[in-house]
Amino acid sequence: MKRSFFLFLLFSLAISAVLFWAGCSKGPESNTFKIGVITSLTGSNAAFGQAHKNGYTIALQEINARGGLLGKKVELDYYDDQSRPDQAVQGVSKLVDQDHVPIVLGAYSSESTRAIVPVVTQKQIPLIIPTAVADNVMESNSPWIFRICAGSGSFAAATLDFLKNNGDPKKLAIVYENTNFGQANNKSMTAAASAAGLDLVDTEAYQASSPDYKSLLQRVKGKNPEVIYFASYLLDASTLMRQSEQLNLNPKYYTSAGTGFAAAEFPTADKGAGKYAEYTFSVSQWLPSAKWKGSAEFDQKYFALAGSHPAYHGMEAYAVLIAAAAAIDIAKSDQPTAIRDAIKQLNLAETPFGPVKFDARGQNLHPVLVTQVQGGQYKVVWPLDAAESKPIVPAPEWSKRK
């Protein structure tokens, strides 16, 4: 009897200890609603990842000031993909399998985002994409994938619409980074230009982060295009424009698929192309001067946080977190399937990023603006109903610039 009682006592103590530690481990989590975020906080895309983080921080502050979600304070669970697709895939496993987040936001680049699409689909976790514009990130038609930004096809269409109505040039060259982002934009512009009757006189792919693009740019110069369309990240965009000046490459239009040419740092001398950014055109998804309610207020909050004015990358991060929070409020649940179904129902008529509503493919039909750097500032020049400045065309030749 004594031995049986002793064994029973040990068993009871063991069960009590398990329950105690389980209760302790659940305690903090029960008061917090975690949302997973994958972005590039280090590596070649760190400037964009930091813009993401700034946008997420502003949205998080607003959400928690309103009481959080499901009665809990919201916490963002960041995973740094180091600007590498393989790390982004590891991020999904960590956030979903270990941290048990019910939704993931990210990544930054098209390369990393395309890599995680099949993984989140297999794990049946909703993913809202803030900035990856390559249209092939949506080609899986996965019911778990949503994208708030416009894609590369919309970038090409907006650029050609602008050109058609502002000089109607006929000769085009494309220069693109040889990654998923660049390849997708090259494919979209090639198809759109052909349909529009433009003569594609040259197409040049390059490896990212090279110190010297002069040979490539010399080949482009030899084809004498009226328009050059770049698909480049920030470091490359800055180098390409500086070396274009050195080679006296003078197309009438320097245009681009956004990204590096649309980064807040691009017109600055210390982090971008500085004066060499002048007169470049870029597609953009948002500017502080955008006419959507709340744009100016977001700009003020971003400047207070970061000491600089935002480009659209920070706003897109802000918008996906606002959209995710709205879906969780609709779902009244922390379960991935319920949240996924609520995202499909979203119809936010008014946000600082414009209306948010996802179509059957999971794509938000977001309008695209065309901007030009004028006096070191981005100015919306197209479409006419959104323009704040007239475009300067053709771009002055390098030798005639001050």
Blueprint (SSEs and pairs):
Elements (H helix, E strand, L loop, with lengths): L1 H29 L1 E8 L6 H20 L7 E8 L4 H14 L5 E3 L3 H14 L3 E3 L15 E3 L4 H13 L6 E7 L2 H17 L2 E8 L7 H10 L3 E5 L2 H13 L6 E4 L24 E4 L10 H12 L5 H20 L4 H10 L23 E6 L2 E6 L20
Parallel strand pairs: 1-2, 1-3, 3-4, 4-5, 6-7, 6-8, 8-9
Antiparallel strand pairs: 10-11, 11-12
How would you describe this structure to a colleague?
This protein has 402 residues and is an alpha/beta fold. The protein folds into 2 domains: 31-150 and 291-345, Response regulator (Rossmann fold, 3-Layer(aba) Sandwich); 153-284 and 369-400, 3-Layer(aba) Sandwich (Rossmann fold), CATH 3.40.50. It is built from 11 helices and 12 strands. The protein has helices at residues 2-30, 46-65, 85-98, 110-123, 152-164, 180-196, 214-223, 234-246, 295-306, 312-331, 336-345; strands spanning 32-39, 73-80, 104-106, 127-129, 145-147, 171-177, 199-206, 227-231, 253-256, 281-284, 369-374, 377-382. The strands form 3 sheets. It has a 5-stranded parallel beta sheet, sandwiched between helices. The protein has a 4-stranded parallel beta sheet with strand order 7-6-8-9, with helices on both faces. β3 (104-106), α4 and β4 (127-129) form a beta-alpha-beta unit. The longest helix has 29 residues, at 2-30.
Summarize the structure.
The chain is α/β, with parallel strands linked by helices.
What's the CATH C level of the largest domain? Alpha Beta
Shape: globular
**Rg, Cα atoms, Å:** 24 Å
Low-confidence stretches: 1-28
For the biggest sheet, the summary is: 5 strands, parallel
Mean pLDDT: 92
SSE order: HEHEHEHEEHEHEHEHEEHHHEE
The main sheet orders its strands as 2-1-3-4-5
CATH topology of the largest domain: Rossmann fold
Count of helix runs: 11
Terminal residue distance: 100 Å
